[in-house]
Structures are given as C-alpha cells and as structure tokens.
Amino acid sequence: MTDVLARRNFRSLATPEAVDAVHGQLDDLWEDAPFVPDMDRMTFATAVIEAAANVVQHAEPESADPVELGVDICIRQSSLRAKVSAFGAASPSIDGDPAMPGEDAESGRGLALIRALVTTVTFTRQDATNTWILSRDPIGS
Amino acid sequence: MDLSYEVKDSYAEIKAAGRLNMVSAPKLREFVADVVAAGSSRIVVNLEDTAFMDSSGLGALIGCLKAARQAGGDLRIAAVQPQVKMVLELTSMDRVLTSYATAAEAFGND
C-alpha cells in the first residue's frame, strides 16, 4: 500500500448543498495532487459527485435522525479512491448491474454512469451506514 | 449556476454558466419552462461556461427537450465542454441531444 499523497474528508447533513460543498473539496484537492491527469480528475470527480447526489436523493433515514453524507477521498501515486457514506440510513435496494434507461428517461442514469467512470465500485453496510467505495486505478492509463 | 436568455431571430439562446447538478437542475427546468411559456420553443442551451454536468443535469436537459418539442419546437445544445461531452457519450445521450459548435449554428439550417 503506497502512501496517501492528498486527502479530503467531508461530513454534513445530506442536502443538495452538501453536494456542491463536496465539489468544492474536489476542486481544492487537485491543487494538492497536480500529478493527476485531467482525464482522471474529470472521470473520478464525476463519479464521486454522482455517488454523493445518489445519497442525497435516495437515502432514507433509519431512525428519527436525518441522514448524513460522508465523503472521504484519498489520492495515492497510482490510485484515486473515495468512500461515499450515508450515515444513519436504512438499507437501500441496490441494482448491482444497472443498465442505462431509455432515451426519454429523466433519471436513473447515475449508478450506470458511476460504473462506467471508475475501475471498481463496492458497497458495504455496517452500523446503519451504507458505504460505496469507488476506485480508479492506475492513474493515467 | 447563472442562467440568462436572449431571443434571437429564429431561436432563443439560454446561457448556462456553472455546474449543472442536482442543485441547479430544477432551476434550469423552471427557466426553460418560462422561456417556452413566453413563446420561444426553438431553444439553444449554450454550455460554453458549463464545466460540469451530472446525471441530474442531463435529466433536466432531457426534460427541457421534451418541453420544447411539446410546444412544437426543439432544444439543441452548443459549445459543449469536455466533461459534459463525456457524460453525453457515456450515456449515449449524444444521439438525442444534438451538439453544435456555436449557438448560431444550432438552428442555422432550419
């Protein structure tokens, strides 16, 4: 496991504005990691924003407390990795292999888009927290 | 996202500047609906200053396209930047949302 060269950690209530805040963190992060090529930045950032937006749009609270969005991004020399978490969320219904919907559809492309943008997507659920881990590696390929 | 529009000879040009995401997507839908309601159904969305679009933004563009067509017109996009082009291609929506180099070219031959 190589060293972490840049990292950002974000957590707040899962609101649409939180997605904008995550975007700001991503823009800021690249300044600490100038070696990451534009194509990798573009694809990875798009996947992270899609995953964060998915939490805001679809995560249902498990209790009376609202869902919180967490995004933890790590950059290593050869990989980009993001943990996108829905804290306090009920277990989601997930389509493991989502297809793109028809041309007329105005929603439903997010998960298929994420799969097209990163190398691996994994999902875990533990202690009322749903976590998606997105990895893109190797960088620059 | 900042939205503005200008009525030209044969179309209305909407300039969208900023990120087209889940925050701004409802604003774009509302903005285009107002432009259509005001009598312009041939619409070009100029994306020159839209550096980022996610699937919510794409969904809004598709909704706006339907609204324009229902009003007897069409919606086309212009000056698409690399990230937006990538999202259109990965979702195959580049076949539905026709992209032109400039807003003036979008309805140039109609």
Write the layout of secondary structure elements.
The complex is a heterodimer of chains A (141) and B (110).
Chain A (H helix, E strand, L loop, with lengths): L3 E10 L2 H17 L5 H21 L9 E9 L2 E9 L22 H8 L2 E7 L2 E8 L5
Antiparallel strand pairs in A: 1-2, 2-3, 3-5, 4-5
Helix pairs in contact in A: 1-2, 2-3
Chain B lengths: L1 E6 L4 E9 L4 H13 L4 E5 L3 E4 L1 H16 L3 E5 L3 H9 L8 E2 L2 H4 L4
Helix pairs in contact in B: 1-2
Organism (chain A): Arthrobacter globiformis
Keywords (chain A): ATP-binding, Nucleotide-binding
GO molecular function, one term (chain A): ATP binding
Strand proportion of chain A, as a percent range, falls in 25-35%
The average pLDDT score of chain B comes to 96
CATH architecture annotation of chain A = 2-Layer Sandwich
CATH topology of chain A: Heat Shock Protein 90
Helix proportion range of chain A: 25-40%
Main sheet attributes: strand count, strand direction, barrel closure of chain A: 5 strands, antiparallel
The backbone outline of chain A, from C-alpha atoms, is globular
The helix tally of chain B amounts to 4
The gyration radius over C-alpha positions of chain A equals 15 Å
- Major interchain interface with per-chain residue totals: A-B, 27 and 24 residues
Summing up helix and strand content along with how strands pair, one would put the structural category of chain A as alpha+beta
- Strands of chain B, total number: 6
Question: What share of residues of chain B is helical?
Answer: 25-40%
**Class of chain A in CATH?**
Alpha Beta
The SS-based structural class of chain B is alpha/beta
Pfam family, one (chain B): STAS
Protein name (chain B): Anti-sigma factor antagonist
GO molecular function (chain B): anti-sigma factor antagonist activity
Family (chain B): Belongs to the anti-sigma-factor antagonist family.
